Amino acid sequence: MIDKPATLTLGILGVIICFYFIWRAGQKLPVFRSFSAIDGLPELIGRCVEMGRPVLLTPGAYGAELNRPGPVVASLPFMHYVARQCAKYGARMITCIAYADTYAAAVPAIESGYMAEGKMDLYVPEDIIYYGSLEGYLTGTPAEIAAENVGALIQTGSPASAGLYVNEMAVKVGAMASCIAANSGEGIVFYSLCSDYLTIGEEYYAASAAIAGDRTQLGSIVGTDLLKIALLVIGLIGVILSAASPDLAKDLITLLQK
To answer: Both 108 and 22 in a single domain?
Structure first.
């Protein structure tokens, strides 16, 4: 049971705000912030079209089999979008997948992208490569990048440290790279250096909702963003009050804790 009215009030207010923006998003798609990794995808795909080189996308090295379904599910809108853009402009798309559950989800997402553009003749099922294990993915994906002379690498999902090998090979063949990932592991510095576009952490899920145009998710994200801003402002006010009048700040904290 919550014995602090201030905490309970803030929680209820947060829920109300989120539900309001979810409802509002159902009426009108909210104005949403841009993501560099999404904005850069047309450039990556266009470069591959100009150079006659394929695009390689990977939904990460992990899947639901390793209790990480969230990043995989969030990667599906990216697969659909990239497949649709590749079909539209005539670029070849290669997808490298480690686990069966990810493969089962990826095939319809990619196929529907080509179908949406009416370019099913460009859809090649063999270009969705399934390795069956993390080891196969780690060795097979860099080899595929080198063999096909990939022009752009798009990493989504949860590449973690396994993606370092993939990114390294992309740099060697002169491919542009975009990392849109929930978790970059200890390789965050490496990704920052080697990726032309980077979106990581919780922004990955926000970018997934944005590229999918999911009104419910976008409304929820707008609501939580406003809550974060409000909490930041409250924190700053607290810091200012503590510096200006420590006794007043202490009295306010004591009042809120009652």
So the answer is: no
pLDDT in the model for residue 94: 95
CA distances from 105 to 61, 93, 99, 110 (A): 15, 17, 10, 9
Strands (E), 61-144: 93-97, 128-130
Q: Which of 206, 203, 208, 210 is nearest to 183 (CA)?
A: 203
- Partners of 128 in the β-ladder: 95
Verify that 145 and 68 share a domain, yes or no: yes
Asked if 2 and 8 touch (Cβ cutoff 8 Å), the reply is yes
Q: What is the pLDDT of residue 136?
A: 87
Tally of structural domains, the chain: 2
- What does the alpha-carbon distance between residue 133 and residue 80 come to, in Å, rounded to a whole number? 23
| pTM attached to this predicted model | 0.78
Pick 220 or 119 by higher pLDDT: 119
| Alpha-carbon span 79 to 58, nearest angstrom | 9
**Structural domain span for residue 234:** 5-29+218-257
Cα 135–chain centre separation = 24
